[in-house]
Amino acid sequence: MKRPLSLLMLYASLLLTAPFSTSRGWAAPEAAPVPPDAAKEKLFAANRSKAKTAWDQDTKTFSKDFTELENEYQKINANYKSAQIKDLLTKFIEKWKKGNRVGCATLYLAQKSGGELREKLLLQCVGEFSDAWYLDGTQVGGLGRLYLASHYKKAGKAEQVKKLVEEIRKDFATSQNHSREMIVDALKELE
To answer: Looking at residue 28, what DSSP letter applies?
Structure first.
């Protein structure tokens, strides 16, 4: 009688993972290496935890006004592709001036801007809001540096690109983008 293939495969996998005899007695099989995806998931979870901490800080900083701030931010986030987004972001930043969500809004506005304004906003992100986090675990400091390096590369400013790439490798090696990709993986396009 033939056994179904799945049972044979199960039996074979059990044999391969069972303890084996050595001259010193029985030994457990070596642990399998941690797959890269599992390691990344741990990084992403740690990043989301840092983001939650930053968000919690906004609740303390703005205490009684936090609900208003968060509602305004979520309204902007829901209208990210609207024609008025730059105006909404600018008003939000001017009104609230500091905090985690302001750092996120400043990076959003930089993404929607060009030229000197884009550079100014990215420099502000890097200088004032490096410790701001989106709740998906994306850090403004890391992603802002990546965008600024890209901006400088297009402008032919090789020394500034090199400096930012070094900063990312040193201080933001575990930073991710909104697509859950490590930003260090994008550096090869800048070098």
So the answer is: P
Sign of the C-alpha dihedral computed for residues 70, 105, 136 and 55 taken in this order: negative
Least confident of 5-14, 93-102, 144-153: 5-14
DSSP letter string, 82-134: STTHHHHHHHHHHHH-SSHHHHHHHHHHHHH--HHHHHHHHHHHHHH-TT-B-
Domains observed in the chain: 37-189 (1.25.40)
Q: Please give the backbone phi and psi of residue 156, each rounded to the nearest 5 degrees, phi first.
A: 75, 25
- CA 139 to mean position of chain CA atoms: 5
Q: List, for residues 33-64, the tens digit of each pLDDT value.
A: 444 688 889 999 999 999 999 999 999 999 99
Place of tokens 């991710």: 176
pLDDT tens digits for 120-145?
Answer: 999 999 999 999 999 999 999 999 99
Cα–Cα distance, 56 to 133 (Å, whole number): 11
CA 78 to centroid of chain Cα atoms = 20
